[in-house]
Write a structure and sequence with these properties.
rod-shaped; 2 domains; alpha/beta; Rossmann fold; about 400 residues; 13 strands
């Protein structure tokens, strides 16, 4: 008897399937809500990014002197500590205005983007700088009358702090991006423009030159020291740390700009459809995992017995299209069978037996020799079947 016991442990199989489903779902969520440098909408400027235009170095550097937190929700935005936001220009002016209104009188530092970059395909995770043109594009985020441009400076120039930032020195990089109109300057360059400015009367500050604090700029020890002094000067008294916001960049729990199709599947109102499809898939898997009813025994490819042999032989004859040539053999079989059931003498044969069988029929019926001749003369399957059926009916009439 064949052993039909499954070699797999049911609990282990279901555990592997559940782990695979959970891992695949987590992968989809990560693909929906995370961005890579060079991807659409992902330019590597987020706080955790390690690209040249990212701010992972600033987060780590600030963490050596105070508590540095990367925030995505209201806990960080509503905190009394300094909030640092690296703008990308994708959220629109409404996102920045909403953030500043929510912050109210709490210290906030906005870092304006500068470099237009693309993904470096030869180095995964790196970006390639194209041109310093994003500052002018991002200026409308801060106000209609704000102007940001590239300004010419001499090597070694630095911006000098004003007001409560007096004494603060911000070294200027070779290609300087500065605020030239629309905001109150707090750190001005010798020639023209401000590296740091204030929006209105609230403690909302704008850093026009991201090369002072991004990963590329922090390679210079002087800029790194200036970045720490700047963050310390802007932090309110009694602050417990510095928060780096991702929500305004569209990298928090919900993007303020156009979301991707994959992200829409995990947010209302399409979330209900996603859950319904998941539940339907689970039901389909459950239905396929269990058998309803007894197992069906597998049939043999070639059956045993004479019936199978006859059926296979008939199939070969049909494939060869030679049915019409079997008429004579069928007439011989009927002749022998008719002689047996009627008790014909054993010495009768040939024409004598045919003459004997012709006398057995009823008056007016077709004789045996005529029917046998029609069967033998058939040229196709249809005519053979008609003649063989008539001969068969004649034989049946002998036993009535």
């Amino acid at each position: 008897m064949t052993d039909t016991t499954s070699p797999f442990n049911v609990k282990v199989v279901f555990g592997l399937i559940a782990a695979a489903v959970i891992a695949f779902g987590a992968l989809l969520v990560l693909l929906a809500y995370t961005e890579e440098p060079g991807a659409p909408g992902g330019d590597g400027r987020a706080a955790p990014s390690r690209s040249a235009v990212g701010y992972a170095g600033l987060v780590q550097l600030a963490g050596r002197f105070t508590e540095a937190r990367v925030v995505r929700g209201s806990d960080g935005v509503d905190s009394e500590d300094l909030l640092v936001v690296a703008l990308t220009g994708r959220g629109g002016p409404a996102a920045v205005t909403e953030l500043l209104n929510r912050r109210g009188g709490r210290a906030t530092l906005l870092i304006v983007p500068k470099w237009l970059v693309e993904r470096d395909r030869s180095h995964p995770g790196w970006v390639r700088a194209i041109a310093p043109t994003l500052g002018a594009r991002a200026a409308p985020l801060l106000g209609e009358d704000v102007s940001i441009a590239q300004v010419g400076q001499s090597p070694g120039d630095a911006a000098q702090g004003e007001g409560f930032l007096e004494g603060l020195v911000l070294p200027a990089p070779p290609q300087v991006q500065a605020i030239v109109a629309g905001l109150t300057p707090l750190a001005t360059l010798p020639a023209d423009g401000a590296l740091l400015a204030q929006i209105g009367e609230q403690p909302h500050f704008v850093l026009a030159e991201p090369d002072l604090v991004n990963n590329h700029g922090l390679r210079d020890p002087a800029r790194a020291r200036a970045a720490i002094r700047l963050l310390t000067a802007l932090s309110p008294t009694g602050a417990t740390g510095i928060n780096f916001d991702l929500e305004t960049n569209g990298q928090g729990g919900r993007r303020p700009d156009t979301p991707s199709l994959l992200q829409l599947a995990f947010e209302p109102p399409l979330l209900a459809m996603t859950l319904a499809l998941l539940f339907a898939a689970l039901l389909a898997g459950f239905y396929g995992a269990f058998r309803f009813g007894p197992a069906r025994r597998e049939q043999r490819a070639i059956a045993f017995g004479k019936a199978a042999l006859v059926e296979n032989s008939a199939g070969l004859i049909r494939l060869a299209k030679r049915e019409a040539r079997l008429g004579g053999a069928y007439a011989d079989v009927v002749r022998t069978e008719a002689a047996r059931i009627t008790g014909a003498p054993a010495w009768l044969g040939g024409e004598r037996l045919d003459a004997y069988l012709d006398r057995l029929g009823r008056a007016g019926e077709t004789r045996f020799t005529q029917l046998a001749a029609a069967v033998s003369a058939a040229t196709d399957r249809a005519s053979l079947m008609a003649a063989a059926r008539a001969l068969h009916e004649w034989r049946r009439g002998l036993v009535k």
